[in-house]
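To illustrate the input format used throughout this study, we show a single complete record. The first block contains the structure-token representation of the backbone; no residue identities are included at this stage. The design step must infer an amino acid for every position from geometry alone.
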């Protein structure tokens, strides 16, 4: 049986950086974030418009690590089995 994705579902972006999640969810200006250019607020705009959700995932569960980091064999095998 095929799994159907509801048309009205919102895409989810999973990140392992808690600061990034807080920055996206809190639209206030902070002196520590003034160096971030406007183009980097694209994700924040999509979240505020309800077009995207950003959720935190623990570092050990981040599947993207298999594509972005050098891993030892056990970690590589564990992530391969989850993909």
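Output of the design step:
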């Amino acid at each position: 049986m095929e799994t159907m994705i509801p048309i009205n579902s919102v895409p989810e972006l999973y990140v392992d950086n808690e600061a990034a999640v807080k920055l996206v969810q809190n639209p206030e200006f902070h002196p520590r974030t003034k160096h971030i250019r406007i183009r980097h607020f694209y994700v924040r705009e999509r979240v505020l418009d309800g077009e995207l959700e950003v959720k935190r995932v623990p570092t050990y569960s981040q599947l993207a690590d298999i594509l972005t980091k050098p891993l030892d064999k056990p970690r590589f095998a564990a992530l391969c089995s989850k993909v």
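Structural context for interpreting the output: The radius of gyration is 16 Å. Residues 23 and 29 are 9 Å apart (CA to CA).
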